[in-house]
Specification:
Strand content: 5-15%
Largest sheet: 7 strands, mixed
Shape: elongated
Helix content: 40-55%
Length: about 550
């Protein structure tokens, strides 16, 4: 719903953001981001990600956490396609100017491989811009896009009809700073010979655009082409930097100008009513992402007396070392005679599993998409490759351990609040343990090293991959843990883990399976990896997306153990 400040002045110039306001280049932008984010480690930017406690919003904190761990965009962002790379970089690097410059440069290198596909963001954009020009309003573009990209897109969009609409364009490489620095707007006004005041409107689709307008001293007009909810928009701004207007479409923009013309009849060369085109439909709301069910709000679970956790990718992040070791290990499959022991395609659970097997068999390395996603563990990889061949999996685990020894050591809490959750469980007098396929030599080092002080005192029991003859998904490790605690294996024992092997192990042990969806799989994918078929019957009892959801679930369970 359009809204605006009563004090807004009729514009002499409309300066537009480019992507997400005038044009849609989402395909190229998100492809470039997916290419660029895996480079964060090589660019030395992982350690420069903003601490979650310093993020502006909870959404920003979740984005930082996700990118730090998985080196890619959160699936919700990819599904909704509502935010720009500038918003992303400002969210994850804050005021670290040098980090953002490095990120923008890497993005531009990646964008160069994809740019060119461009279309108007909403129907009728050319007709609306032509009407604005006929009214005597100067038109300009101020964008974080580089000149080589804007000039190509400007001659491409709408079959080149836009080339002569704009009185000035200023790009990121025309100035020394990226938005939210106001230089890109101030230089535009300088080129037009106009002052930076309320009669200059900057029309953009993001928080960063409005912050830039505010810093430039011009009127910020938020173009809500992404169809954000009003309360969501309000949550981004303080009274001081709130936009002068929020508009859902170019039709709303013409309505606002028509209203201003009534009180300022000489503001425009021609009245809006004389030049406005027939109404075009507004931008369509993005399809909402289908979230996972098995939701904590609807499940009925027995209150836990014992909570067992997986280690890697549940409590802690050791993804870098794990994937480096897997990379080093797979070429050894030839001399270990493991290539011929992989499952046949018809025995794979999903088409994706079959493709992974075929790729490893042919190239002796992980498929690039698996490495880019960083979402599955070596245990899951071995389950996909070898199925029920226990001997082959044991050989693979030993080969992994040999190479992991060269990489392990760096370990981080998966989320900032993990320790607090573990301490909270102990205050509730719950017994807490760790079940991991990691060998003890690695686990004990990581347990003592995490968060510098270590977490050794937080657990009543731990069972490692070399403590039992069979590793997960067999239930032996879970059964040994409760045996050590002198507690029966029943649903009042929760096992929290991030993989299909964790779920299978919990269900086979007769325990409650809590699937930790730190990788943010959506509902269709969860249905695929937990099909509930005769061949693959095991499904989690509940899915939690982060530790705040898990803690709420613990507190909500009121039914005691059987």
């Amino acid at each position: 719903m359009a809204r605006f400040s009563d004090s807004i002045a009729a514009p002499s110039v409309l300066i537009f953001d480019w992507h997400g306001t005038l044009v849609d280049t989402h395909d190229a932008m998100f492809s470039a981001m997916e290419d660029m984010l895996p480079q964060l480690e090589d660019l030395n930017l992982v350690e420069r990600l903003l601490p979650e406690a310093k993020c502006r919003t909870p959404d920003d904190a979740r984005l930082v956490r996700y990118i730090r761990i998985f080196r890619r965009l959160h699936p919700r962002i990819l599904a909704e396609r509502r935010v720009s790379r500038t918003d992303i970089f400002n969210a994850i690097f804050g005021e670290d100017r040098d980090a953002k410059l490095i990120a923008h440069k890497a993005y531009n290198e990646a964008y160069r491989r994809y740019f060119g596909k461009v279309k108007p963001f909403q129907p009728g954009a050319y007709e609306y811009l032509s009407a604005l020009k006929a009214m005597g309003i100067k038109l300009a573009v101020s964008t974080n896009r580089n000149r080589e990209f804007l000039d190509k897109e400007l001659v491409t969009v709408d079959e080149g009809r836009w080339q002569h609409l704009f009185d000035a364009t200023v790009c990121a490489d025309d100035v020394t700073e990226y938005k939210p620095d106001p230089e890109v707007i101030l230089k535009t006004l300088d080129k037009l010979g106009l002052p930076a005041d309320g009669r200059a409107w900057y029309v953009g689709d993001s928080y960063v655009d409005m912050l830039t307008a505010n810093r430039a001293g011009v009127a910020g007009v938020f173009y809500n082409g992404a169809c954000w909810e009003p309360q969501r928009i309000d949550s981004w701004f303080s009274y001081r930097d709130a936009p002068s207007a929020v508009l859902d479409s170019f039709e709303d923009l013409l309505d606002l100008l028509a209203l201003l013309e009534r009180s300022q009849p000489k503001a425009f060369r021609q009245a809006p009513a004389e030049v406005r085109p027939k109404p075009f439909p507004p931008p369509e709301r993005p399809e909402p992402r289908v979230e996972a069910d098995w939701h904590p709000a609807v499940v009925k679970l027995i209150r836990p007396s014992v909570v067992l956790f997986d280690w890697h990718a549940t409590l802690v992040d050791t993804l870098d070392a794990m994937y480096h070791a897997v990379d080093d290990m797979l070429p050894d499959f030839h001399k270990l005679d493991l290539m011929g022991r992989m499952v046949s395609p018809e025995d794979s659970k999903t088409p994706e599993d079959a493709r992974l097997v075929a790729y490893v068999r042919e190239f002796a390395r992980l498929h690039p998409k698996v490495k880019a996603d960083r979402k599955i563990s070596r245990t899951d990889i071995f389950e996909v490759l070898f199925g029920d061949d226990q001997e082959a999996k044991q050989v693979a685990h030993r080969a992994f351990n040999f190479h992991y020894r060269n990489h392990f050591g760096t370990v981080k809490a998966f989320e900032p609040k993990v320790r607090e959750v573990l301490e909270g469980l102990r205050r509730l007098h719950r017994q807490v343990g760790v079940i991991t396929n990691r060998d003890r030599e690695f686990f004990e080092h990581e347990l003592a090293a995490v968060e510098e002080t270590g977490w050794t005192h937080l657990f009543d029991v731990d069972v490692c991959g070399d403590d039992t003859p069979l590793r997960k998904p067999h239930p032996d490790q879970l059964l040994l843990a409760v045996q050590k605690l002198d507690y029966p294996p029943d649903p009042s024992v929760w096992y929290v883990g991030d993989s299909t092997t964790d779920v299978i192990a919990a269900k086979r042990a007769g325990m409650t399976s809590v699937f930790f969806n730190g990788a943010q799989w959506d509902q269709p994918w969860l249905n695929r990896i937990f099909p509930g078929t005769h061949k693959h019957p095991d499904k989690p009892d509940v899915v939690v997306n982060d530790f705040s959801e898990f803690w709420a679930l613990v507190l909500a369970c009121e039914i005691g153990p059987p």
